[in-house]
Amino acid sequence: MNQDRLQQLAQLLFPNELPSSDQLEANYPLRDLSEGARVTRYAPSPTGHMHLGNLFSAFISERTAHTTNGVFYVRIEDTDKKREIEDGVSAILQDLANFGFTVDEGVTGEQEETGIYGPYHQRQRERIYHVYAKELVLQGLAYPCFCTAEHLSELREKQEAKKLTPGYYGEFAACRNLTFEQIKENIEAGLPYVLRLRSPGTGEGKAIFDDMIKGKIEMPENNQDIVLLKSDGIPTYHFAHVVDDHLMRTTHVVRGDEWIASAPIHLQLFKLLGFKAPKYAHIAPLMKEDNGGKRKLSKRKDPEAAVSFYFEQGYPAISVKEYLLTLANSNFEEWRKVNADAPQESFGFNLKKMSASGALVDLVKFNDVSKNVISRMTPQEVTQAVTAWAKEYHPEFYQKLIRNPAFTQGIFSIDRGGPKPRKDLACWNDAVDYTEYFFEAPTSYELPENMQPCDAAAIIGLYQQAYAPGADKDAWFSGLKEICPQLGYCPDVKAYKKDPTAYKGHVGDVSTAIRLAITGRRNTPDLYAIMQLLGIDECQKRFENAVAIFSNM
User: Fold this and answer.
1) In whole angstroms, how far apart are CA 21 and each of 131, 270, 333, 388?
2) DSSP code of 258?
3) 3-class DSSP state for residue 121?
4) What angle do the packed helices 363-375 and 317-328 form, to 10 degrees?
5) How many domains does the chain contain in total?
6) Residues 124-147: tens digit of each pLDDT
7) Is 306:51 a contact under the CB 8 Å cutoff?
8) Contact of 456 with 489, CB cutoff 8 Å
9) 3-state class of 390 per DSSP?
């Protein structure tokens, strides 16, 4: 078409008055940022619940921005109303809040947002997309297509039968060369249509770009006449995200590597629209070991794939982020060893240090990471977090915790702090078993193989008479050693090792029997601290109960 016909076509397709692209450029000024600062976004669709892959991508985007003193914003890509779930936006924002994300601008509520680059809901940006779609029509780079779904399905079948690349392009683009009169006639007849890109690609050229993670990527150029606007005037993801990322001045786009196949389309659109393309960082999917091999982490098969899993189990958000950093940058663990108490934010995250292949999600390692994180928390932080988790996920346990808040905090104060804190808890759900003997006297005992029940009863019975709860820890332990000879045990571990034949055991075995009486377990935090917290009356009751049970075994 000549320019006059293109003008008429643009007016026919977009009869309502629209601002010019120059006006939009003025409304979305370049950002005033320090040198090297990056602008990233998390742009989910409210069509389902967040999974670990989403969280990982969002976290990488956030770290990319904030490590460079840049901007991290949230945009909602809600062009697919059919798949949208109720309260989908609220759920997304709540997940981000639960994980402590700092969002600088964008969507902050179902109907709330902050920042001058909005609206941040794509559904509210229809006129903006139409401005650029109209410009493409005026340049002869877009046209209406009236092909039905049946026609497109038949076209694909014919192409596949001939082993041709399927799609709408070149000679197969039936509406590419419609005259203005034909288009006008179809529109006046009420035929539905979409707006397609008239791709200048021939399929012989190359799309080449430097991926921030995977390095240089070279692919065939796009030659498909992709849909820009659907029949209801709403844009496709391809078109909308290009316009949005340009106007919102996005510098780096972090997304899953399933989008690499679409990169030639996106780069072509940026070029045709006269926009500078952002840098792309394509993340490989998170993986899991399975029967000796690896596969993608699955929302259907793997409970840990759902973000809700971490909330339900009571993993601190900081633990999840700590583990994700170990997946993101291999040098993070070494940094953490040197900077044990430093906040995560001070780590120099780098996109270029991400692995090009999928990171392996290992729950065993994740639990170790989380134990380390929790071991650095104060008693107050642990008590508050466990109680908040129990209130929502374990009401019975919650009632125990709030019965005596000072006692509860005392539990989580034992062996906390110091150069070598215990690492018993990976998540707050672990605290249910960890604290059980504090709230209920044991009814069963993990008796070691080298100790007879009668010996355990003798040790506990004798210690019960000599128990001095007011003594300090050193005096308390001295008291244990003092009763050893009366029972045939060695008061010194080293001496026992030199000549074990002369004794039933050593002072460690004596303390084990007492530990069993108090907790029912062989491995616990500091026994002296446990007994001090329980108090003399409760300890005496437990001694009596244990003696009775062991004496009858």
Assistant:
1) 6, 14, 48, 51
2) G
3) strand
4) 120
5) 4
6) 999 999 999 999 999 999 999 999
7) yes
8) no
9) helix
E runs forming strands in 43-92: 71-74
C-alpha 298/C-alpha 301 separation (Å) is 5
Helix/strand/coil (H, E, C) string of 480-531? HHHHHHHHCEECCHHHHHHCHHHCCEEHHHHHHHHHHHHHCCCCCCCHHHHH
User: CATH no. for residue 316?
Assistant: 1.10.1160.10
Which residues are CB-contacts of 148 (< 8 A; sequence separation ≥ 6)? none
Query: Which tokens go with 91?
Result: 């759920």
Amino acid of residue 282: H
pLDDT digits (tens, 9 = 90+) for 250-265: 999 999 999 999 999 9
Average the pLDDT over each of 61-65, 170-174, 502-506, 545-549 and give the range with the smallest value. Answer: 502-506
Q: Residue 508's domain is classified under what CATH number?
A: 1.10.10.350
Could you tell me if 348 and 432 lie in one domain?
Answer: no
Are 101 and 58 a contacting pair, CB within 8 Å?
yes
N-terminal to C-terminal alpha carbon distance within the chain: 99
Residues 72 and 66 sit within 8 Å (Cβ to Cβ): yes
Structure tokens, 136: 């493409």
| Residue at token pair 């934010």 | 345
pLDDT in tens, 368-386: 999 999 999 999 999 999 9
Nearest to 223 by CA among 183, 273, 172: 172
401 and 513 together in one domain: no
DSSP secondary structure letter of residue 415: T
Q: Which domain holds residue 415?
A: 379-439
Q: How far apart are CA 398 and CA 110, in angstroms?
A: 32
